[in-house]
Amino acid sequence: MTNNIRKNKGFSLVELIIVIAIMAILSAAIAPAIIRYIEKSRKKVDVQTGKVIYEAACYAMACGDDEVEDAWMNTANNERDGEMTSTLTGHKLRPVAWARGVKVGNWQNSLFKCAHNGAGEQPFVDEFLDALAQDASKGKGNSWDSGSPNAYDGESLCLCPLKYGKKMNGHYPELWVVYRDVVTNNPEVYIGYKQGAVKGVWRIWPETCKEYK
User: Fold this and answer.
1) Tens digits of residue pLDDT in 68-86
2) How far apart are CA 186 and CA 193, in angstroms?
3) How many CB atoms are closer than 10 A to CB 32?
């Protein structure tokens, strides 16, 4: 009778070790590919957001309002903080509007605002904010003009968050900048950081830079 009883054997210790070793090898081989896929997906989201920002700037430029056009050309403001050279055309770029894409303090400047002091850019920025559905900050000028609570702060208001946040070229992606090409007057959208003035580093639209492809 005892001989007819089927013995139910479990895994031996050696078999378990072999299975664990195989799983570890597979994980080590697959994990980097999964991480690269996730990072590439996050960059693609940022590129699509940058395209939306670019199209909103183009829409504002084409509204037909002389005041908006003058504000885009920045004729009422002689400041030159934050100017840079386009990595696409080699032309000089002038920042017009910017917004945070990651949390800094209490999400400072979580909505787009004028890139310079004064009201020279505000008519264009207001039209641009309409196109982006960010009308909560229309007409506010600079963040310190808006009183309390600050119209630009608050995580719930960050409508253009950055998804890719790894350090590149010595800097972390922190904010969006809309620039005007001073030769063609066309917009360019960059991701960059702020150190005194805003500084664009990675061109997102048009013709996305290699780091975001």
Assistant:
1) 998 898 765 566 778 999 9
2) 22
3) 9
